[in-house]
Amino acid sequence: MRIGDDCFEIFITQDDFPAMASVGIHLAGIAHLRPPYEVERMDPSIHTLLFTSSGTGHITTEHGEQAIEPGSMTVIPAHTPARFEIEGDRWDMCWFLLLPAMHWNQWMPDVAEVRPTGQAPAVFHLCHVIDQERYLDASYPKASFQKLASYIELNLKANQPETPDRLSAAFAQVEQSLHKPWTVGQVANLCYYSEPHFYRLCQERFGKSPKQIIRQLRMDRARQLLEQTDWPLAELAGRLGFSDQFNFSNRFKRETGLSPSEYRIKHAEHA
């Protein structure tokens, strides 16, 4: 464990807020982190959630490493060993330890995940409000914790799309920007999966590796553009993410048995 002198955390405990237990929150905190920051949990018996408001970090589990970006919720089910580290010069987030015996279990994933959420700033702000309410009548924090629990439940339920949809959405984004030099890691981040987990899911769903899927998307688009346009091969190469037209031509011929020019002529003859 490494926690730098410039890091500070505000703890929200049941001693100060008895209402926490009634909504299934065991412990919570607000973290304003600066380098260095590295914390490891070996076998936590409790679920962990992080809502990142600003800055970045990353989480490492047995399934690989995932980036934690602003506007995200990180979900770590109980008994998942994990290491948390700061990326860059700051990481501002709030965290919650949820009781596994409560209703949270039904919405927990099998492995740690980082999911996008538009509510991260609101949850972060609400935690600061709760911190100030420790000095007020107990009815105030009780209402705030009920609202907080609603935010958590909403995000655990609403930000849990089916795996096929997440994969399809990621590759749809790739297809819209084939000119980019996509890496497997970048596409995995679109799904909020680690690379190894993303690779396994692609094999299970499509029977192909992520690289093969990206290559297939480029080849399918190449066929469409060769059939429907007279654009120069150099332009097609750029639009499809190839370094030059020779690289594009070689790859296309390897995949189809025809050069791009031959394919275009053959299609015109049968049109």
TrEMBL record:
<feature type="domain" description="HTH araC/xylS-type">
    <location>
        <begin position="168"/>
        <end position="266"/>
    </location>
</feature>
<dbReference type="InterPro" id="IPR050204">
    <property type="entry name" value="AraC_XylS_family_regulators"/>
</dbReference>
<dbReference type="Pfam" id="PF12833">
    <property type="entry name" value="HTH_18"/>
</dbReference>
<keyword id="KW-0010">Activator</keyword>
<keyword id="KW-0238">DNA-binding</keyword>
<dbReference type="GO" id="GO:0043565">
    <property type="term" value="F:sequence-specific DNA binding"/>
</dbReference>
<dbReference type="InterPro" id="IPR003313">
    <property type="entry name" value="AraC-bd"/>
</dbReference>
<dbReference type="InterPro" id="IPR018060">
    <property type="entry name" value="HTH_AraC"/>
</dbReference>
<protein>
    <submittedName>
        <fullName>AraC-type DNA-binding domain-containing protein</fullName>
    </submittedName>
</protein>
<dbReference type="InterPro" id="IPR020449">
    <property type="entry name" value="Tscrpt_reg_AraC-type_HTH"/>
</dbReference>
<dbReference type="InterPro" id="IPR037923">
    <property type="entry name" value="HTH-like"/>
</dbReference>
<keyword id="KW-0805">Transcription regulation</keyword>
<dbReference type="InterPro" id="IPR009057">
    <property type="entry name" value="Homeodomain-like_sf"/>
</dbReference>
<keyword id="KW-0804">Transcription</keyword>
<dbReference type="Pfam" id="PF02311">
    <property type="entry name" value="AraC_binding"/>
</dbReference>
<dbReference type="GO" id="GO:0003700">
    <property type="term" value="F:DNA-binding transcription factor activity"/>
</dbReference>
